[in-house]
Amino acid sequence: MHLSGNEAAVIAIVGVAVGMAGAALAWVAWVRVRRLRDAQRTLLGGGRKDLVEFSVSLQGRIDDLHKAVDEVDRRVDGALGNTAIVRYDAYEDTGGHQSASLALLDGSRSGVVVTAIQGRDYARIYMKELERGRPSVALSPEEQEAVERAMAR
Known about the structure:
Blueprint lengths: L4 H40 L6 H27 L4 E7 L10 E7 L5 E8 L4 E9 L2 E2 L5 H12 L1
Antiparallel strand pairs: 1-2, 2-3, 3-4, 4-5
């Protein structure tokens, strides 16, 4: 098969056009890859890790954060979060509800009940421990009411 000069010129022009289109596509792909690498460097802080390693380390840090939050929740549950005060008149000759019992308990009903008895010429303070709802010494009705109010919240 023999080609004329015009046919050869058309084939050459088409070949050059296809080559230029290929070169243009390669340049566009190179620019996109360069932008992607720049974005990855920005995300990774310039490190040499790839995106998979970064996401694995990020997941590890998130897991550590969840563990820390769970520990804080556990500690808050164990804190003295249940409190109540009952004010009353300990003696008939006093007024104004000057005596009080204060219950400071955690979620398992452990803690302390502080009672301040006010008389005309004196004040007495009593402290009683509770371990899982069991007092170390018998509670007065007002102290028991403070404990019940604290646990009702």
